[in-house]
Hints:
Blueprint: H1 8-17, H2 25-37, H3 40-56, E1 58-59, E2 66-67, H4 73-76, E3 81-88, H5 91-100, E4 105-109, H6 128-135, E5 141-144, H7 150-163, E6 169-172, H8 188-196, E7 199-200
Helix pairs in contact: 1-2, 5-8
Amino acid sequence: MNQQYPSVLLEKAVNEFAKLPGIGRKTAMRLVLHLLRQDKATVDAFGQAIMTLKREVKYCKVCHNISDTEVCQLCANPQRDASIVCVVETIRDVMAVEATQQFLGLYHVLGGVISPMDGIGPSDLQIESLVKRVTDGQVKEVVLALSTTMEGDTTNFYIYRKLEKTGVRLSVIARGISVGDELEYADEVTLGRSIVNRTPFSGSL
């Protein structure tokens, strides 16, 4: 046992919390000590929520967003415009775009962007399922709403090459989002305007 920890159990808990993104050991210690101060029912509910999430959460078979059912609430909503699909990198980006209340179409979550440095290629992403959605014929416009990074632009171009002969309209969110910014950190007004003022994507920016 590390001498700075009075308990092996405490050390193990801190180690697990410290594995979370953005959580250092000091923050992990504060979180663990906070949980120790709670009553047993509160801690049990916390642990149960995490285990239930991992065991029972589903991914929408249409857009790959997190869902409690086979098809998520957005894809199942008849009020949404199924002819427009907004392509995003992560589930967090769906939440960011939804918060703007400026987009009434559907989504497609890639699960990342093409990044050879990280060993992520097109086959590791949900690109083929996007192509299938488009070729099925209902989709009229694909909005590319990926982060304005080199990896995001590379992925935009790859998708463009896969879809350019389908006849679907391809657009990209307006560059109100600063180059290099990740979508989830954009403020709602800027992101909303970028969605509304999207421009045709021609394979170059």
